[in-house]
Amino acid sequence: MTAPVDPRVIAEIWGVICERAAHPSEESYTSRLLADKKGIDKVLEKVGEESTEFILAVKNGVNERTVEEASDLLFHMLVALRAADVDLADVMRELEHRRK
């Protein structure tokens, strides 16, 4: 059994993404994604790319790659939510609602 992980890490990452959106920095990958001339399409391209890589990692049964690609996919999904002006809290409430 693995050690429990602090779920606040998602909230911290979300906070950084929102900070980068509000105060862009050319050194920030997240800021560059959000400010790309393609607009939200750039972020969605990354979500598509990471989804494919995640699928392939799972299909190939490579646990380490699956973890890496799941992390990439989750990160880019969070950036896409921010780019679409969707609050993560709304997604979390929907998940909570579906759990019941």
Summarize the structure in short:
The chain is mostly helical.
Please, could you describe this protein's structure?
The mean pLDDT is 95. Helix 1 crosses helix 4 and helix 3 runs antiparallel to helix 4 (63-83). The protein is mainly alpha-helical and 100 residues long. It is globular. It has one domain: Helix Hairpins (Orthogonal Bundle). The chain has helices spanning 8-22, 29-35, 40-60, 63-83, 88-99.
Write the SSE topology.
Elements: H1 8-22, H2 29-35, H3 40-60, H4 63-83, H5 88-99
Helix pairs in contact: 1-4, 3-4
Entry keywords:
100 residues; mainly alpha; Helix Hairpins
CATH class: Mainly Alpha
Order of helices and strands: HHHHH
Compute the number of strand runs.
0
Helix/strand/pairing category: mainly alpha
Give the number of helices: 5
CATH fold-level name? Helix Hairpins
Q: Alpha-carbon distance between the termini?
A: 26 Å
Mean pLDDT: 95
Helical percent range?
Answer: over 70%
Q: Outline the low-pLDDT stretches.
A: none
